[in-house]
Amino acid sequence: MDLPANPFTFGNPIRAPACFYGRKSEIRQITSRLLSSAHESTSLVGERRMGKTSLLTYIAHPDVAPSLGMPPEQYCLVYLDFQGLTDITPARFWQRVLTRMARSACDPELARRFAELAAQGGLDFFDLEDLFEGVAQRGLNVVLLMDEFEYVTQNANFGADFFGGLRALAIHYSLSLVPATRRELVDLCHSEELKGSPFFNIFANVVLRPFTPEEAEELLAGCAGAAETALSPQEKALIARLGGGHPFFLQMAGHYLVEGKGQGLAGEELRAFAADRFDEQADAHLTYLWSHSPESEKITLLAALGLGLAKPSRQTIPTIENLRRLHPRASLDVVSLGKRGLLLTQDSAYSLFSPAFERWLAREVVAPAGQEESPASVDAWLTDGGHERLQPVKGTLPRFKKKYWPILATVLKEVSFEMIAGVALSKLI
Description:
Number of strands: 7
Radius of gyration: 25 Å
CATH superfamily of the largest domain: P-loop containing nucleotide triphosphate hydrolases
Distance between the termini: 34 Å
Number of domains: 3
Number of helices: 19
CATH topology of the largest domain: Rossmann fold
Strand content: 5-15%
Strand order of the largest sheet: 2-3-4-1-5
CATH architecture of the largest domain: 3-Layer(aba) Sandwich
Structural class: alpha/beta
């Protein structure tokens, strides 16, 4: 018997336009610049697994681009993925670009020209200038949608002369650039010299944030409707809480909930199954997000967790004022963490994006039973490391992993160990 396909998928980018949901505002911002008389460039910035690849491939899809005002006879949209290309050179860059342009161009003569130049290699800036001048004369606009572009900006093979030439082509000819990176381009340079390059001032930034509640509902309704899978309001709420607006995590939560329903589970059994499977699958991804957070952001996340667990009061609601009282840099961190999708805000209060992340973070910082540090180890650390200010919480420190003692101290003044340990041991949301 053939089992029905699970309508929720995660792991690979969305390739079919019919399965792409949300992002209307971001698409409008990018395409409006591409369609302007200057064919302007845009930098797409978004956290890992936030949907950058899906968005770029959606825009470049031959069935979608014309509906966005970019018919193939006027626009040659070229998707390129630079992930893992740590040893790429400018020569290989242009060879790769021209090969993809040859495949994407609908003008046979131009396609042939692109292929010839790709095979020729050894192109200098004047060759490229002549090429794009000819492209412009034929009324064609080339759009390079460049995924994982940090593999280029952080590569020492690419100096200021390369980016200066690329900027000149984008300004003077019908070439538009849409690079996608995890952080802003200027923060992903391999040298201070490159950071000062005028290349970076031709872009408008579009930040890919978590889905709005409306976009999340569109995804849930669309996926379930396409496969004729009924989801109750309670089941949708469970998926939304676990996913926290991340398209990737929403798909993951939906996948395991539907899998549980397929096994005949319902009620609390279904909730437990979906939450447990989600925790297992999400672990590696949450580890990545945490490990790639600066120490200041880690303190702010722990402060938000700690305040959120405390008994509600005027001093413990995780507002920006209370977070800043614990950690002065919190006002800067909440902006970055919001863009990354790790913090959500509602009614001026901040919270971690998912109860699954709360459980993961609590388990991450709490020392496993039997592996706690001794009181003598705490005394030595306080004295030798110059951490005397942490004396008031020294009795609690052994219950946490030693590596987190410096960033936990202020949080422990506001929340009890028992509360964090309770989250670490919890299963259901």
